[in-house]
């Protein structure tokens, strides 16, 4: 069973456990503490979102064995090991095996809190990357792969689309420009029993008023000047499938009346004909305006609004699910790269993705998609992208820094007394000399002579 805590702490010393729980709780963490690693292991799973802090020297399963057992569950779980005075080399060896960090006793509350905060951020990023990889590699169905986002709002939208797709109900899609209404309409069709039939989409906002009726209903020969022959309309092309009318809020009163009859009877006539034609098609509509507000203003028929809105799906603005921005941007970037037939491209850094989540995005997903295009071709060049920021420290560099800090702390504590220092560090006198030379440390800097 997985614990709900964000920190699991393991130490066989009850006083240390109590003190650590109090310190981390005051910093806002929820801590579960154990005296034995074996008991803690029962509460750790691949879904655990937190960090593990464990003493190294314990009866039964020790910290190193505990680390190895955790890595068998999930090698991306951050483990911070707590060492005694003579265990620094052991802790360094543990970092080589995959430990996230180590603390030397006695440690300050601040040092513990800082390491836990870094480890939690590391875990958060690893889980986000894992979710992205699962999404892009197709472990979920088509709706999950294409309508990306793990936020509650997006999960609700996907679930509603999935449920409505299995029906033949007419659906009204609402939401701001760029929120993904076109994709939602396509998913409603592709996941429906009509998926093998035509999907006919018409953007009513961009068509001249005089052409919409002919385009929708078709016309007979000589129905109007220039109509030399009969033409099928979009309604006939959609028979058996789905008709998607985008931006219905822009319909004129005359066309609203004609569409009301169409939705009511599922029959229509071509322009210039009195012969009725059956419409066997599902009707999906969308709008970025409030049809209720247009109805109150007398600009839209209320009876048509209710017929369009047999079922509705609200597509949320991007600012309301900002936690999805990072994953969505990487999804869009990969889509752009695939379209260009490119596997290797400039990856965004975690810092850059973090800044994207803080923007307002008035153009929503469409605006984010445009940014992904610019990023891919190199027009968008953030200072902290992975190919332009300073390289991250390697594991070896971090281990060297940790070793130097341990030596400095010990020399300060013993005021430059080398014998006391190498005994505490658990190394020979020669080894301490060599390490001091490598780290450019002078004994005199730690003695009273330095004053």
UniProtKB/TrEMBL annotation:
Sigma-54 factor interaction domain mapped to chain residues: 147-377
Response regulatory domain sequence ranges: 6-120
GO biological process, one term: phosphorelay signal transduction system
InterPro entries registered for this protein in UniProt: AAA+_ATPase, AAA_lid_NorR, CheY-like_superfamily, Homeodomain-like_sf, HTH_Fis, P-loop_NTPase, Sig_transdc_resp-reg_receiver, Sigma_54_int
CDD domains xref list: AAA, REC_DctD-like
Keyword check for ATP-binding: yes
Domain of life: Bacteria
Keyword field contains Transcription regulation: yes
SMART domains per the UniProt record, alphabetical: AAA (SM00382), REC (SM00448)
Name used for this protein in its record: Response regulator
Keywords: Activator, ATP-binding, Nucleotide-binding, Phosphoprotein, Transcription, Transcription regulation, Two-component regulatory system
Modified residues (4-aspartylphosphate): 55
Recorded GO MF terms: ATP binding; sequence-specific DNA binding
